[in-house]
Amino acid sequence: MIDFDVAIVGSGMVGLATASALYRQGMKIAVITDNQQLYHHLDKERVEIRASAINHASQQYFQQIGIWDKLLHSGRVQPFDQIEVQEVSGFAKLVENCSAYAYTKLGYIIENQLIQNTLYQKLIEQKNVVFFYHQVTDLTFSSDRAFIKLANNEKIAAKLIIAADGANSFIRQHQQIKMLKQPYRHHAIIATVQTELAHQACAKQIFYPEGIVAFLPLWKSHESCLVWSTHQHNVNVLNTMAPAAFGQQLSQITARYVGQCKIISDRYTFPLIARYCMDTVKPRLILIGDAAHTIHPLAGQGANLGFQDAQQLTDTINHLYVAQHDIGLVKFYRQYQLKRHKDTLIMMAAMKGIQDIFTGYNPVKSFTRGIGMNAINHINWLKKTIVEYGMK
């Protein structure tokens, strides 16, 4: 049996970022994953399909763990300095520019695989970080250790386990930790889209009665990450369409904002479900990222919530480790859990409220949201408060 300070289950962006923030203090870190290919070579000409909107807080975290300069050096980080929210069938509108803030950019669109590659390359160079490429099959606890059994029968002991193994977390299910779920009644289609008009570093969200279309600007001037969320029936119909017909359908909704659209990648579809775990901190076990919560992607805040879990948790662990406290005791994480619950619940409520407000053909609702959105657009302090919350 190999003994570690921390065992991180999950090798996505949040799990790897967590490991990157912990190894510096000299802790012995295990990263456990069944993904045999964490690093994927990136095509110099082709954009990856999955990308995330990274806010100022996450960018600062990337700087703190030493990957930001490497990400910038790749030439594949696309800053955006403007956001536009439009309604197709009404007059609701909100536009904001980074010039109103203390930040030079409102955020950055970065391919998920680029972030993962950069984190993985950094971690495999560290002598006190060990990767185990096997599934977890069992989990047990004693008073001073947690024990993990792997599919190859190897056993690992750690003072603390961090579950960053995604929305369908094996660790959460194995420990029978309750998670509240509420479907958004939408499915999402993601793809890379080429638009007739250059994106000009502007992130766009276009609401229409049956859903939401988001264009996240990528490092090529006419290419964006498309996130199209709508009812499952509509998604089923869209997925039967050939790429040209799909692009034409998308253009009918959005052409006046981005020009004609062409789909230049595969399409991926998944159901949108709000998930919330009330008890993310257990003796010698903490859930973070999608294992603890998932939200609607309409504001691009899901990844940022996960990175803020990682930052606040690792700051706490590092402090405890330096002070020679037992990092597996629940009592040390009460403030952390309260802060993360507050931030998560605020963001979940906001996403649900926005979706509800913009869904449907109701003329009264359309008039109300138009008045409300345009009022926000013209009340600078209120608009600034809303936008800044998503940046921090």
Verbal overview:
This protein is of the alpha+beta class and 392 residues long. It folds into 2 domains: 2-37 and 112-180 and 275-350, FAD/NAD(P)-binding domain; 70-111 and 182-272 and 358-391, 2-Layer Sandwich (D-Amino Acid Oxidase, Chain A, domain 2). It has 11 helices and 20 strands. Strand 5 and strand 6 form a beta hairpin. Helix 1 runs parallel beside helix 4 (112-123), helix 1 packs parallel to helix 8 (302-322) and helix 8 (302-322) packs antiparallel against helix 9. It is globular, with a radius of gyration of 21 Å. The two termini are 41 Å apart. Residues 364-391 have low confidence and may be disordered.
Q: Layout of SSEs?
A:
Elements: E1 2-9, H1 13-22, E2 29-32, E3 51-54, H2 56-64, H3 68-73, E4 78-80, E5 82-87, E6 93-97, E7 107-111, H4 112-123, E8 129-132, E9 136-141, E10 146-150, E11 155-163, H5 170-174, E12 180-195, E13 202-208, E14 211-217, E15 223-230, H6 232-240, H7 243-258, E16 261-263, E17 268-276, E18 281-282, E19 285-287, E20 293-294, H8 302-322, H9 334-358, H10 363-378, H11 380-391
